[in-house]
Amino acid sequence: xxxxxxxxxxxxxxxxxxxxxxxxxxxxxxxxxxxxxxxxxxxxxxxxxxxxxxxxxxxxxxxxxxxxxxxxxxxxxxxxxxxxxxxxxxxxxxxxxxxxxxxxxxxxxxxxxxxxxxxxxxxxxxxxxxxxxxxxxxxxxxxxxxxxxxxxxxxxxxxxxxxxxxxxxxxxxxxxxxxxxxxxxxxxxxxxxxxxxxxxxxxxxxxxxxxxxxxxxxxxxxxxxxxxxxxxxxxxxxxxxxxxxxxxxxxxxxxxxxxxxxxxxxxxxxxxxxxxxxxxxxxxxxxxxxxxxxxxxxxxxxxxxxxxxxxxxxxxxxxxxxxxxxxxxxxxxxxxxxxxxxxxxxxxxxxxxxxxxxxxxxxxxxxxxxxxxxxxxxxxxxxxxxxxxxxxxxxxxxxxxxxxxxxxxx
Length: 410
Hints:
- The protein is about 20% helix and about 40% strand.
- The longest helix is centred in the last third of the chain and has 49 residues, at about 335-385.
- By secondary structure, the protein is an alpha+beta fold.
- The termini are far apart.
- Strands 12, 19, 20, 21, 24 and 25 form a six-stranded mixed sheet that branches. Strands 2-10-9-5-6 form a five-stranded mixed sheet, with no helix packed on it.
- Helix 2 crosses helix 3 (about 400-410).
- Strand 20 (about 245-250) and strand 21 form a beta hairpin.
- The radius of gyration is 52 Å and the shape is rod-shaped.
- It has three helices and 27 strands.
- It has three domains: about 20-130, Immunoglobulin-like (Sandwich); about 140-230, Immunoglobulins (Immunoglobulin-like, Sandwich), CATH 2.60.40.10; about 240-330, Immunoglobulins (Immunoglobulin-like), CATH 2.60.40.
């Protein structure tokens, strides 16, 4: 008994494949925009003994009841719904119905009818057509977006294309990167349009709304559109110190603010000369949350004692990194300090001037002394030479040397 049942289960599909049977394949439902067309993907089969009856005399009919025909491919201009069909000799009953209206929202079934023995209804497989006043909303995938900054992101927008001659046009707002469009097919052979947006995630995209718009062209030339808005994008990024960070001096106080943004939300820490600064009798620190990614910290330093330039650091950190901002603060001097500096400058100037004068005098004295020595040496040499006859001149007395020196100096 079991073997016979197994043979029956195996043999029935095989017999069905070899002998063929009457069946049709159409979608269960199709939504279409009012005033547009609808393309019904359709294929059928007949019993093997009717294969030879599929010829050029065959026509396709779409009916809502056994008596009511809404489309006849042999008289396309006289139908309640105008359109065209595929090649029935190849068992292709794909049909396009034009200018669909709300009253055409019904269930339809297919009939093949030839000028021979082949005439058959397929009422068991019905198609429900739903005519809508507005176009269907496009679908965005993924539905949520949470990625790190720098990651390559792909978003897909898809919308039904019930009318193949007027498929929807898909547009992105904002247009963040490259866009690639294709026309694809569902399992039931209906078509849909897809648009893939590829871009690199940036902190500038965080919390930004991304929308896809589907624009449908009607057969009368008018258009209808629908929009789907998401991917509020959740972009994870390291902290950044904003340009609003600054410091100001008031009498006896130093006031600084530091603003940072990052995702996850960052922490802020003040440092002075390389050491962390916390609340104390000299430092008052407070902070406030600006949004889910922003933080602002304030610090007030009472009675600062340092002078000249000193680095005040604001450091922002989260799990992805950190950022630093150095504020080099100049402490203004008091009137007494400015007077002391001026006095010191005058004193230094006077000392330098005196040193210059003394050095000049010393140089003049040294030059005169050197000149006197040279002249004295020259006179001595002149007095010690021989006369023209080769006889030595008598040595001069000290009085002679003094007289000659005086004559030379005149």
